[in-house]
Design a protein that fits this description.
The complex is a heterodimer of chains A (about 230) and B (about 180). By secondary structure, chain A is mainly α. Helix content of chain A is about 80%, strand content about 0%. Chain A has two domains: about 40 residues, no CATH class; about 170 residues, Tetracycline Repressor, domain 2. Chain A is built from nine helices and no strands. With about 180 residues, chain B is mainly α. In chain B, about 80% of the residues lie in helices and about 0% in strands. Chain B contains six helices and no strands. The longest helix of chain B is centred in the middle third of the chain and has 31 residues. In chain B, about 50% of the residues are buried. Classes of the chains: A mainly alpha (about 230), B mainly alpha (about 180). Chains A and B meet through helix 1, helix 3, helix 4, helix 6 and helix 7 of A and helix 2, helix 3, helix 4 and helix 6 of B.
């Protein structure tokens, strides 16, 4: 253990963009992954930590912001209808979080399956992929039902007039929204994951930002369409 | 296949998601009770979802980087005042300022060219709210990452749903504070 620490301390002193034989030696001798060694090299004492983080994060954060804003324009167009539906206002942050979380889970688990060799040519026949889909789908529906119920109960305490028809419409909107998004995210993860993996690129680097951005954008658009159709 | 669906993964994901939706619902309730202050602002619905996401993205990445550093031994669990932690704090603040300014600008341009409403103060609104949210979330994320690591847990498993939930609440509260200041 002391020897590994000694080599890792030496690794921190290497210049930021240098390919150094020490990295290969540590990787081969101690079986520490190159990505781990990469972290140690990136944030060593000679690196500019804020600069590294900014350069690598700002583009994807801006892209994510643009996609969310594009989806938000759909909601802004139906603002007069949307802001009077109190249960949907309560549910807006929750739905946003949920679809992002499910997108992350689907992308990262599918990427892992690709590396483990569990994805063959006829991926739709693989039991592990079917299990992943049904797990996320069922959990998404359960959490949607729980959160919609809570939102409807809370809105009873406001001046919003609830009746059986409105309750049914709100449940329909949230369930259809989440179900559609889980299906879209799943298909996108599989198609894009296979595409990047077959190009010998790491799907982890692409799938999560792309799928969560698609989820954010899709969530707003689907919500706007359903609100217009049902209200 | 049915047994395979309801395995350990299912229970873990479900329990973390329940934690996550609690924060979202609290944020939604605060939003619903302040509709006349927040949502009636022109263009707010365009950038509010992105503003809520921004908090989760920045804090989530921060927690993940710190966790990696703790597990690798690059960050010591009893020392918070290090170059890496300071660098992460500066980077999180700068990212929040850049993204908040960008969101404010998008809303201002949409209001100006589509809604024909001139609202330059909306840029300040998002900037101030972004800074306030950052000042609350970043120390909280750092303290909790170290706390869970010292207790023997993997912060990556716990902090993901927590930072998205607390990020929603912090963002809405920050917007209300920023509105009161402007």
């Amino acid at each position: 253990m002391k020897e590994i620490r000694k080599h890792l301390e030496a690794l921190k002193k290497i210049g930021k963009r240098e390919h150094h034989p020490l990295i290969h030696r540590i990787h081969t001798k101690y079986k520490i992954s190159r990505k781990t060694l990469f972290y140690v090299k990136e944030y060593g004492p000679h690196s500019n930590v804020p600069d590294t983080i900014l350069r690598e994060s700002v583009q994807i954060l801006l892209l994510s912001a643009i996609l969310s804003a594009a989806g938000g324009m759909a909601l802004e167009n139906i603002k007069e209808i949307f802001i009077v539906i109190v249960p949907l206002i309560i549910l807006m942050p929750t739905l946003n979080d949920m679809v992002g979380d499910y997108g992350t889970i689907i992308s990262s688990r599918f990427s892992t399956m690709l590396y483990e060799g569990k994805v063959k040519k006829k991926w739709w026949m693989e039991s592990s992929i079917k299990i992943l889909f049904w797990q996320i789908f069922i959990i998404a529906l359960l959490t949607t039902l729980i959160s919609t119920t809570v939102a409807l109960i809370v809105s009873l305490f406001s001046s919003y007039q609830l009746n059986a028809l409105i309750i049914l419409k709100v449940f329909t909107i949230t369930i259809v929204d989440v179900a559609l998004l889980v299906i879209i995210m799943f298909i996108s993860s599989v198609v894009l994951g296979l595409h990047y993996f077959n190009k010998k690129e790491d799907p982890n680097n692409f799938l999560i930002p792309i799928i969560t951005s698609v989820a954010d954008f899709g969530n707003m658009i689907i919500l706007a369409v359903l609100v217009v159709l049902l209200f | 296949m049915i047994k395979g669906v309801f395995d350990k993964n299912f229970k873990e994901i479900l329990s973390f998601q329940v934690v996550s939706i609690i924060g979202g619902l609290i944020a939604g309730i605060i939003l619903a009770y302040n509709t006349n202050k927040i949502l009636l602002i022109p263009g707010m619905l365009i950038t509010l979802p992105a503003f809520l996401d921004m908090r989760g993205n920045i804090s989530g990445s921060l927690a993940s980087r710190l966790s990696s550093g703790l597990f690798l031994g690059v960050i010591k669990p009893n020392t918070i005042r290090t170059k890496i932690i300071r660098g992460n704090i500066y980077a999180s603040l700068l990212l929040a300022v850049i993204i908040a300014l960008f969101l404010g600008l998008i809303t201002f341009l949409f209001n100006n060219f589509v809604l024909h409403v001139f609202t330059p103060e909306i840029i300040w609104l998002f900037l101030i709210a972004g800074i306030i949210a950052n000042m609350i979330e970043v120390p909280l994320t750092i303290v909790l990452t170290f706390y869970f690591f010292k207790k023997g847990h993997d912060p990556n498993n716990i902090l993901g749903p927590f930072v998205t939930s607390s990020g929603d609440i912090t963002s809405i509260v920050s917007l209300l504070i920023a509105l009161a200041l402007i």
